[in-house]
Design a protein that fits this description.
mainly alpha
Length: 215
């Protein structure tokens, strides 16, 4: 049981890490960690899983390329803004509504569904992150919280119910638009750091879906 809890904690940490990566520009302190030994160890561990080896290698290459840029923090911040804070014509906006909504506008049905889902599990959006509920960072943060909530259940039936909720969430709220978002990142991210991150996230979500489905 302790191994299962620890494994779930690792899953949650990965979702939370990716949430932070797509929530805001990386600071100098963040980049110091990305080029440190702990991140190297963390990515090496992820890459030991066959399905993640190629996307992890691509992301590690992107980190090394980033480190070689003349003003890394400012240039990556510019990449972030150009991709995620621009317009649908020039960027890869990180909102489900832009890919699976009906209007092509923000706060479409996916945002409403996400808001209702968060309320049903009594999981609150961070007040300092004032974005529509279907922002990728919010959805990933929610998934991490859902995993930890599963760990806290007292019975096998309750834990299984939370696992099924996680599987449903991946299928209906993440994998229904992440492939399209990843494709847009690959098309529009000239430098490639965030495209590699999105590709790794997609590969991890597909792998996590298989785990939850017992495949």
């Amino acid at each position: 049981m302790q191994e299962f809890i620890a494994f779930n904690e690792q899953r949650a940490e990965i979702y939370w890490w990716m949430s932070s990566l797509f929530a805001r520009e990386l600071s100098d302190a963040d980049l110091h960690e990305y080029h440190g030994g702990e991140m190297y160890t963390f990515l090496s561990g992820l890459g030991m899983t066959e399905e993640l080896k190629a996307p992890v290698d691509t992301f590690r290459t992107a980190i090394k390329k980033s480190h070689a840029r003349s003003d890394e923090q400012l240039e990556l911040a510019a990449d972030f803004c150009g991709l995620f804070l621009s317009t649908p014509k020039s960027g890869a906006l990180p909102y489900a509504s832009m890919y699976v909504g009906k209007t092509g506008l923000l706060n479409d049905k996916p945002a409403q569904e996400m808001h209702e889902l968060m309320a049903s599990f009594d999981i609150a959006q961070r007040k300092e992150f004032n974005e529509p509920a279907d922002h990728l960072a919010i959805e990933l943060d929610f998934m991490g919280n859902l995993i930890i909530m599963g760990n806290q259940q007292q019975t096998e039936e309750q834990r299984e119910a939370l696992m099924q909720s996680q599987l449903s969430f991946i299928n209906t709220m993440l994998l229904n638009w992440l492939p399209l978002f990843t494709k847009e990142c690959q098309l529009r991210d000239r430098f490639g750091f965030y495209a590699a991150a999105a590709n790794l996230l997609l590969a991890f979500c597909i792998l996590d879906k298989k785990f939850l489905a017992g495949e």
